[in-house]
Specification:
The protein is an alpha+beta fold. It has three helices and nine strands, in the order E-E-E-E-E-E-E-H-H-E-E-H. It is elongated.
Length: 162
Amino acid sequence: MTAITVIGHNHIRRVDSFDGYEVLAHPLANRDDRVFHPGATDALGLSVTYGSFDLKIARPTGVGNSGRLAILMHHGGGRYVLVFSEGVLPVAETLLALPERLQYALAYTLFKQANECAEGARAGEARRWADAFIDGRIRKRRRRGRRYVEIETPDEKARRCS
């Protein structure tokens, strides 16, 4: 089994609308353009359709959102937003300079990769809590009217039980 380390927060939010975002690009806006037919070198001759996945590349508007980029996805399951920091690299300019099909492919790949990393992190955390429950390492305490729940390490449990 390979361990994956997820750095940062790949928080994909479900939203009701895309208000609050300035759309920079809408690659392959026509649904029929999101069907990729086989090329001359494709041995299988299969078409791939992303017709139900509408993507937009945008910037969040408002205070505190400078240097951030967003991928807006709308599909049958609803509207979702992935916002991430560009850092010092010109991510938006590089992405917008690409041809439309490559913009779509890269934005879709970034969105799906962030989603898979977030799902993996959630599954790993659920497994950690399940293992701690089985081993009896979940500790609950109260202090000043607040409840705290934490997982103790196996060494902490050994010291507590000895």
